[in-house]
Amino acid sequence: MRHNEMVYVTPLPVRIWHWLNAFGIVTLCITGLQIRFPDYITVFGAYKAAIRLHNTAGTVVSVSYTLWIFYYLFVARSLIKLYVPTLDDLKTGIFRQAYFYFLTYFLGKPNPHHTTPDSKFNPMQKAAYLVIMLVLLPLVIVSGILLMYVAPLRELFMLLGGIKILVGSHFLLACCFTAFLFVHIYLATLGHTPLAHFKPMWNGWEEEEVIDDEGTETTVASASDTKPAGKDVI
Amino acid sequence: MCMFKKIFWLLTLLTLHLTITLIQAASIPDTGCMGCHGQPEIARNARNKSSFIDPAKYSGTTHSIIGCTVCHDRVSPGHPGDGYLSPKAVCGDCHGPVNDEYVKSVHGTKARCNDCHNPHEVRLPFFMSGDEINGKCAKCHDSRKTIQSHAKWLPQADLHIDSLLCISCHTSSREYAITLSIESRAPGSGTAFKLATFPELTALSTDGNISKIIDQNGDNMVSLAELRAFNHHLRSRNMRLWGMMTPEVVTHNYQIMVNRWDCSFCHASGSKAMQKSFIVLPGKNGDFSRIPVEKGAIFDILYGTPDFYMMGSTRSTALNIIGALIVATGLSFPVCHGFFRFLTRKNRKEEHHEA
Fold it and tell me: What number is the ipTM of this complex?
């Protein structure tokens, strides 16, 4: 039998960071588009306004990223547990999750991953977020900061191969983030209801579908992190 | 009638006299003047003021073609011992339209022509480096203060002032191109790059023709392949190509151009405006020459001009295509998955009912 339980998966600091980051990255993508194609895109009016907004949003995202990594490393101490895929995730988990997204989801089978505060992300999410948060975001932040100070950092630019390599990398990384946004927002609608994954990013609680196996309830979290959602029991 | 004839003959004789005087003046060889004025130890007047004219620099000027006596038409009988200076022509005598334009500008009352242009060294902008042109402004306008005042409104003011001619924004000069100068520094010095000198570049060439170090086939056109090949060796030679946006048509109407406050004057001028570029090479007389570069070199992804990039204008089509493919890949996932999700929506409803 299935029933729903409410699981507290997203603490307040993480939610604040997420929305700050979300608005920041969307702003960066749109202003970046105007900066690269000013002949065609004038969403933010003057070119200088787009640059100033881009730099401000970039600074906000950089500070927010620093706080995020500080929080997960030193306060929650769960960065590795949450974001680094285990050996089992790499051997079978990723393929099991991909099999679900690309086949069994369409057949109506349940998601093989169950969210708990200790295992917020499925193996595919872990791998994707690991790359996004620990590789791509730091790279785009560093390249963006360097591009804000071209003249004083010219020597560093030369060591890196020239300003074009840096600008090109920043642009391609930004394209990766834009692509990620589409996938990320769409995948967030794949919960048992289209908004099921959006709610926890607002109030912290995720409604998790639990299947009782012959009277034995599947444990999704420690008692302190869960509360029954009586009316949601199917 | 007789009176008119007399006036006619008088005017004719006067014109003939003036013409002969001018021809005679022009035909006096400059070597006569430069015999003394071309030697620093001789060219000192009674007030111990040097009137030395660098023959190398003077020979590169347009003025050297018309000769000394066109501007200095006579000398005192006791020259040079009597201490009298020979008369000088006024620049406006020949450069009337430029002079008229200049005197109306904000600079008109602040500086005379020869405060910026030494008539014995002056060259057309095409035969000068960008740094040399900006150096004339920096004689009065302190670079540090200029950066500070521009930084109040201009993002990365230091970068702009390094990469633009002052006259690009402070005159209505037009038809911009990118000029790429070769800069160098001593190996391991870590000091700022400076314009590579003629002897430095001669040392790199095998036959003394410095244009061959970049224009390898000598066709007076630098192809993209030649530019890439040149750039591959630049770092190991402690050199770089420094790009500056320079106007092809220069005016003297110094002012603060209102439309230059709008960044899109340069940054949204579209990729076509930036297709024209030149390599600037130093000559042995302190002058510079230009070799045109194949169109589109500025947009080459990496090695065309690795140290030159102008936001909004320098756009690599190849890079844009790669970027668009990345975004399209991301967008295709929700579209394709969403399509099959819609088609199979009944399966998920049935599963829920079974449960």
Answer: 0.85
pLDDT-based confidence at residue B62 (cuts at 50, 70, 90): confident
Q: For the domain A2-232, what is the CATH code? A: 1.20.950.20
Exposure string of B211-230, with b = 16+ CB inside 10 Å and e = fewer, is bebbbeeeeeebebebbbeb
CB A132 within 8 A of CB A180: yes
Distance from CA of B219 to the nearest CA of A (A): 28
How large a percentage of chain B has pLDDT more than 90? 19
Residue ranges, chain A, pLDDT below 70:
1-3, 209-234
What's the gap in Å between the CA of B287 and the closest CA on chain A?
A: 27
Paired residues of A119 in beta bridges: A116
Q: Single out the residue of B289, B287, B291, B152 nearest to residue B216, CA to CA.
A: B291
Nearest CA in chain A to B319: A168
User: What is the β-pairing status of strands B277-282 and B174-184?
Assistant: parallel
Other beta carbons less than 10 A from residue B18's beta carbon: 10
Domain ranges of chain B: 123-317
pTM of the model: 0.80
Chain A nearest-CA residue for B351: A108
- Average predicted confidence (pLDDT) for chain B: 82
Instruction: Map tokens 């100068």 to a residue.
Output: B181
Domain range annotation of chain A: 2-232
Measured CA to CA, the distance from residue B274 to residue B262 in angstroms comes to 18
3-state secondary structure of A128: helix
- List of chain A residues whose C-beta atoms are within 8 Å of the C-beta of residue B162: 151
Question: B194-195 and B239-249: which strand pairing?
Answer: unpaired
